[in-house]
Design brief:
heterodimer; A: alpha/beta; Rossmann fold; 2 domains; six-stranded mixed sheet; 18 helices; 20 strands; globular; B: mainly alpha; ABC transporter involved in vitamin B12 uptake, BtuC; two-stranded antiparallel sheet; 14 helices; about 0% strand
């Protein structure tokens, strides 16, 4: 045990999980996973949504305890590994969604909570500013130290947290949990430089990402997680995009359909075009987006987090700003919606990805939530017809199988899956012609997911054309008639149902295009290998 | 849902009225002269001005904002209306004067709503400024008090109607009825409470949130002006200090009545309960000869108790509904989703 007292040498194991499992009621998030992290390496963790990456991160940072298995830090076995232990052992985490104090300036946040003090107890801002400026210059992150955190963009905040973890918290082991999702080319280059410098200093970096191209550039080793198992750890010499993609997707992926959904109707059954998006542009978010949607069609949009999925759907509904572009509805007139009210009036409805912040009114009852948009579009009299409203709600509760004690229950008392169904009911009740469903299956269990996908397939297509996004490909593969692939804000490929192949679509999401794809991605986003590696 | 659960839920949702009944019974037993027709009428009469102001405050609270300026509007609207009409067209019909007062109240409310929604000002700070500005203007324009108000103007505050019951009581109860109807049965009412509960979600669902909030402020200004006419009538004059301190009392009444400061939760019926409970405590403790300063202690404590009960209520309500859900599950035999 006295090796632990010595300073670890490069290549030495600093962190190890051995045979860990995490079981939740109803699901197994991790099973018998063993991974070794070494000093001075960048270790990539990749896998699909729900593969168990976030569970692993939570275990490594001590937030949750594994159901079985062991965690070793610098050779020491920890039984009840907690965030306090993690901090003491020099493990820090830069999370996907930065949490900062909005009114603090950059420099105030950088040193929090270890401010320099003079002997008198007064804070030594002069010395802190000097140090901060020096570090910022060395990383190449040019930022005014007196700007407020709330004024930084998301990617600037992410860079800030990365720099803080490495230079100010001085952690030996840094976990980067999908921190690159909003980076543009320039920020990515800066990020790569920081990682490279820190690796040389002997830090251990655990890099969780969805973007295989980034992983290829900076990682020394990559572990692929699938269905809660650590499938394989690949060394640098063996890193190949195709290999990683196939490890992530798994064998026999072609017919991997998770839910039992009735077979889709034939293509010929689709009706007239109900929505045509023409040349949607928003600087540095998405570019030149055009597609059309038919009545009765389910159109999937696949893409990584940060590829612009949500923004495009919101832009259609008038929630997100556009630089240019127009919409054509079935009437044929070119238009653009100035707010969601206008869009709802015209029969285009957006189902928000963020259910509780942007979707439901938690303090109101199931009934009042379910009929909110209905009252704006369909029931136009100033007086609400109470009986009609109750009947409609009862119908929605029955067809969508919402589990609630009554229509009058506060919606915030429902489980996640049932809240999601109330939101689906609200959208459906509008009888809109175009439904934009942004991740309707996010964060809910299998049964609720199946139920929602089922109602999209069998009910919503009866009245409308549906555009749908999802964090995982399985949902899209199981119900879509067509899938569009979004990469770095560009539509790069399109698959009809008979062409569906999870592996090929997954590769397209990663920017690896099949021959004959109908568009080319912006090459400038393709990261170049650094240091000739 | 079975009858027992329904009854418990109804009692929980109307906790303020349960409290009211409790205190009413206690006071009837222990305070002499409390339980007379005259005294009960008195409680209502003395609650009428505050009652209308609680309604004004409550509407804005439901949208998730607040309006401290109601107490200044209460004085400003009738004050300016009388000053202007007396100066320009002396002897004009009191109906015109009343209409002008109501209009001024609505303009003040519109300005509040505009500054808060369009210019994104904080409601507390904006309405605090407005409260100070309007009070300052009134103090400047009205040296001490405007007297000699026409009878048509004061009748709402000091007149009596059916069975010799003060007109002010009819005005207050009438307004509560109207707004209970608006909040319960109209689209506007539904959109208003949704905007307060989650403005972002309501906007995405298609509610014109800013328009709704501005309208709520306009209604608040209108109601404050009505409260002003009642107050002017009761005093027979408009003094420049009229309404001072009522903003906090209106907040107390609304919160006591179960309106959430964060918006989106509460009923008009609850606001009435809050108002009447404050009035009842005031009246009965005065009758019992309690020191006027201790009276404030009692009112403050009452609000504290209401807040504690409110948290307890939320927990009790959730557990009641949970048990009910389990019961339904057992009956239907389906699994928890």
């Amino acid at each position: 045990m006295n090796e632990t007292e010595m300073i670890p040498k490069p290549g030495e194991v600093v962190l190890e999980v051995k045979d860990i499992s995490k079981v939740y009621p109803g699901t197994v998030a991790l099973q018998h996973a063993s991974i070794v992290f070494k000093r001075g390496e960048v270790h990539g963790i990749i896998g699909k949504n729900g593969a168990g990456k976030s569970t692993l991160v939570s275990i490594l940072s001590g937030i949750i305890r594994p159901s079985a298995g062991q965690v070793f830090v610098k050779g020491k076995l920890f039984t009840g590994f907690s965030p306090v232990h993690a901090k003491k052992e020099g493990i820090t985490i830069a999370p996907q969604r930065p949490e900062t104090i909005p009114d603090f300036t950059v420099i105030q946040s950088l040193f929090l909570p270890n401010y320099y003090q003079r002997a008198t107890g007064i804070l030594d801002w002069k010395r802190m500013a000097a140090d901060a400026r020096q570090i910022m210059t060395s990383t190449g992150f040019e930022i005014d130290l007196n700007r407020r955190m709330s004024d930084l963009t998301l990617s600037e905040q992410q860079l800030f947290l990365i720099i803080k973890a490495f230079y100010f918290e001085k952690a030996d082991i840094v976990i980067l949990d999908e921190v690159t999702t909003s980076f543009s080319g320039k920020e990515q280059a800066l990020f790569f430089r920081i990682i490279e410098a820190q690796r040389k200093l002997g830090k251990s970096i655990i890099f969780i990402s969805h973007r295989i191209d980034e992983v290829m550039v900076i990682c020394d080793r990559v572990t692929v997680i699938r269905d809660g198992r650590a499938i394989k750890t690949v060394d640098r010499s063996g890193l190949e995009k195709d290999l990683l993609c196939s490890l992530v997707v798994g064998e026999g992926s072609g017919n991997l359909v998770a839910c039992e959904i009735p077979e889709s109707g034939a293509h010929e059954a689709l009706g007239e075009v109900v929505l045509r998006v023409e040349g949607f542009n928003r600087r540095s978010v998405f570019e030149d987006i055009s597609f059309s949607l038919r009545h009765g069609e389910i159109l999937g949009i696949a893409g990584l987090v940060g590829s612009g999925r949500t923004e495009i759907l919101k832009a259609i509904a008038g929630i997100y700003p556009l630089d240019s572009g127009t919409l054509k509805l079935s009437g044929g007139l070119s238009t653009r919606f100035k707010d969601p009210n206008r869009s709802l009036q015209e029969g285009v409805v957006y189902f928000p990805e963020d259910r509780d912040e942007e979707g439901l009114v938690g303090t109101l009852s199931v009934r009042k939530n379910a009929t909110l948009s209905y009252l704006i579009r369909i029931a136009l009299r100033s007086l609400i017809r109470q009986q009609q409203e109750r009947n409609l709600t009862r119908e929605l509760i029955e067809t969508l199988e919402i589990l609630t004690s009554s229509q009058e229950e506060d919606v915030q008392n429902l489980s996640g899956g049932n809240r999601q169904k109330v939101l689906a009911g609200r959208v459906w009740a509008t009888q809109a012609k175009v439904l934009l469903l942004d991740e309707p299956t996010k964060g809910i269990d299998i049964a609720a997911k199946e139920s929602i996908l089922n109602s999209v397939k069998t009910k919503m297509t009866q009245i409308a054309g549906v555009v749908i996004t999802s964090p995982g490909l399985e949902d899209l593969l199981s119900i879509c008639d067509r899938i569009l692939v979004l990469f770095n804000g560009h539509l790069v490929d399109e698959f009809r149902r008979e062409q569906f192949d999870e592996m090929v679509i997954y590769q397209a999401i990663q920017g690896i295009l099949r021959p004959g794809a109908n568009a080319t991605p912006n090459k400038s986003h393709e990261p170049e290998r650094i240091n000739g590696r | 849902m079975n009858k027992g659960v329904w009854l418990q839920l109804t009692l929980l949702d109307n906790l303020i009225w349960v409290l009211f009944a409790f205190f009413f019974i206690i006071m009837s037993i222990y305070v002499p002269n409390f339980l007379s027709v005259n005294n009960i009428t008195n409680i209502f009469y003395h609650s009428s001005i505050l009652g209308v102001l609680v309604l004004a405050q409550g509407l804005v609270l439901l949208t998730g904002n607040l309006d401290l300026s109601v107490e200044s509007t209460l004085c400003f609207a009738p004050g300016i209306a009388i000053l202007v009409t007396n100066a320009l067209v002396p002897g004009i019909s009191p109906i015109i004067q009343i209409a002008l007062a109501l209009f001024i109240g609505m303009v003040v409310g519109w300005l509040n709503g505009f500054l808060i929604t369009r210019l994104k000002m904080n409601a507390l700070l904006e309405s605090l400024s407005m409260m100070t500005i309007l009070r300052g203007l009134v103090l400047f324009l009205v040296p001490f008090a405007i007297t000699g108000l026409p009878q048509g103007f004061t009748v709402f505050g000091n007149g009596r109607w059916l069975f010799n019951i003060p007109v002010a009581i009819f005005v207050m109860l009438g307004l509560y009825l109207i707004f209970a109807f608006i909040m319960g049965a109209t689209r506007f009412g539904r959109f208003l409470i949704a905007s307060g509960g989650n403005p972002r979600a309501s906007f995405i669902a298609g509610v014109k949130v800013n328009k709704i909030i501005i309208t709520a402020f306009v209604l608040s200004g209108l109601l404050a002006a009505i409260a002003g006419i009642l107050a002017a009538g009761r005093q027979g004059s408009i003094s420049n200090a009229m309404g001072t301190g009522l903003a906090i009392q209106s907040l107390s009444g609304a919160i006591l009545g179960g309106i959430a400061l964060s918006g989106g939760r509460g009923t008009v019926f609850g606001m009435l309960g809050g108002t009447l409970l404050l009035g009842l405590i005031d009246n009965s403790l005065t009758l019992a000869g309690v020191n006027v300063y201790l009276l404030n202690v009692a009112k403050g404590s009452l609000i504290l108790i209401a807040l504690v009960l409110d948290s307890a209520k939320t927990i009790a309500r959730a557990s009641l509904l949970y048990r009910e859900k389990l019961r339904i599950l057992e009956k239907t035999g389906s699994a928890i989703r």
